[in-house]
Amino acid sequence: MARISSYPRDLEVNNQDAWIGTESSNRLTRNFTAQAVANYLNIQGKISISGQMSFKFIEPPIAGGSFIGPADDSPISSISTLDISGVDAGGQNTVAFMQYLVGSNILISEQNNIDSFGHFTVDSYVFNDPIYTLNLTNIAGNGNLQIDKYYDFAAFTLSADSGDKNFIFVQAVPSATWTVVHNLNKYPSVSVVNSSNNLGYGEVDYISLNELTITFSAAFAGKAFLN
User: Fold this and answer.
1) Fewest beta carbons within 10 Å, which of 1, 71, 169, 222?
2) How far apart are CA 197 and CA 220, in angstroms?
3) Which of 10-19, 27-36, 98-107 is predicted with the least confidence, judged by mean pLDDT?
4) Considering the chain, what is the average pLDDT of its residues?
């Protein structure tokens, strides 16, 4: 084998770049891609980020390092309850920290896709043998849950001086009336786009400081931006 110094240096690492290593279970030589190593570090939590846990969203029954509850492809912002393992995907025991977060805020975001997220208040975290149940109130969110994807759960509170609050509502199923629970504690301005990102117009009725409806002349799916 040539000396390592004789190979040209690659200063730009790409997902499919690979290097040689040894598999621990059988001591055989393998090649490992940069993407595979990155996935391992993320999922197993080997790079320490204080206050962050990783769980896999799966179909029932629940297993270690996972959570269940919502239907596949349901909006993250619609989550109100999750059944969750007491240990995360990296083997960390998360029970005490989850209990500490009750009454605080948490961010649930898909790994490698920060545009798919939910911001919640943790209402309670209780043991229902043999699983733990996490009860949540949505603050904001975007995107849908996907089976077999990994999600980071992290303590998260917006700074008091971070500016005016906003909310993105996703109407995945066509409807002529959208009911939006935004929890912004105000009467926000509303802009609507359809699934092709064309502006739409409807009649906004404010039910309360935290809920409104938008009524259209025809049913369609899209998003509402509240500011």
Assistant:
1) 1
2) 12
3) 10-19
4) 88
Whether residue 97 lies inside any domain: the answer is yes
Co-location of 102 and 151 in the same domain: yes
Chain Cα centroid distance, residue 44: 17
134 touches 84 (CB < 8 A):
yes
Q: Which of 9, 60, 13 is nearest to 36 (CA)?
A: 13
**H or E segment and range at residue 204:** strand 203-208
Same domain, 86 and 175: no
pTM of the full structure: 0.58
What three-state secondary structure class fits 138? strand
Tokens representing residue 149 in the block: 């994807």
Distance of CA 90 to the CA centre of its chain: 17
Which structural domain range is residue 133 located in? 52-155
CA 11/CA 132 separation, integer angstroms? 45
57 assigned to some structural domain: yes
End-to-end CA distance of the chain: 62
Query: Quick one: pLDDT at residue 39?
Result: 67
